[in-house]
Amino acid sequence: TGSTRPERILAAVQRKATKGDARSVVNTIDQYCRYQEWAMNVGDEKGAILDSIVCEVKPSVMLELGTYCGYSTVRIASMLPPNARLLTLEFNPAYAAVARQVIAWAGVEDKVVLIEGPSGDWIPKMKEEFGVTSFDLVFLDHWKDRYLPDTKLMEECGLLRTGSILLADNVICPGTPEYLEYVRGSPRYESKYFRSHLEYTRVEDGLEKSVFLG
Ligand code: SAM
Ligand code: MG
To answer: In sequence order, what are the beta bridge partners of 190?
Structure first.
C-alpha cells in the first residue's frame, strides 16, 4: 500500500475519532489495533492500570520514554491535572511526525512536549533545556535494553527525588530482566508488579511500579 503502520493508525484517527476528544482517539486506535493490525501501544488493558497510576500520582512533571504514535501520550495527557507537563521522547522522526498529529487531533498538545532524539542524549540535558527539577512519574516504554541504563542515568542526573515513581511497561513480554532484577533487588526502590496482558493479546505481560526511596 506504500503507507507505514503508523500512517495507517493516523489515517484511522482522522477518519473515525472526534477531534478534540482524547478518549475517542484512544478508543479508535485500540479498535484499529485489535481488529486490523497489531501495534506496540500500551493498549486498553494495561492502559487502564496506567490511567489509575497517573490519577493517583497526579504528576506535575512527567516523562515518557518512547512515544511511537502518541497513543499513551494522549492517554496520559488527558488524565493530567491542570498545568502539568508531559515530556515524551521519540528517536524515530517518522513516528514523531505521526505522534504530533495524533496528539493535536486529541487536543492535548498544550500539555505535551515531544522531544525528538535518543533518550541517552536527552536525559542529561533535561534540567538545562526544559527546566526540569525532577520527575514525579516516568513511564518507561522504549527499547527494553534501555530501561536499566536510562534509569541509572536519571539517577546520576538527579532527575529522581524521594518518592519519584518509575512505571515500566513490558516487563514480562518482551521482558526486561536486568531492569526488574535491579528495581526489585535495590534498597533504593520499593517495587510492585501489576499483572496484565500484552497489548491486544492474551499473553501475560505487566507493568512494574517502582518508588524511588532516595
Ligand atoms: N508508549 C507508546 C504507547 O504505548 O503508545 C509505545 C512506545 S513503543 C513500544 C517504543 C518507542 O520507543 C518506539 O517508537 C521507538 O522508536 C522508541 N525508542 C526506542 N528506543 C528509544 C530511545 N533510546 N530513545 C528514544 N526513543 C526510543
Ligand atoms: Mg509497551
So the answer is: 211
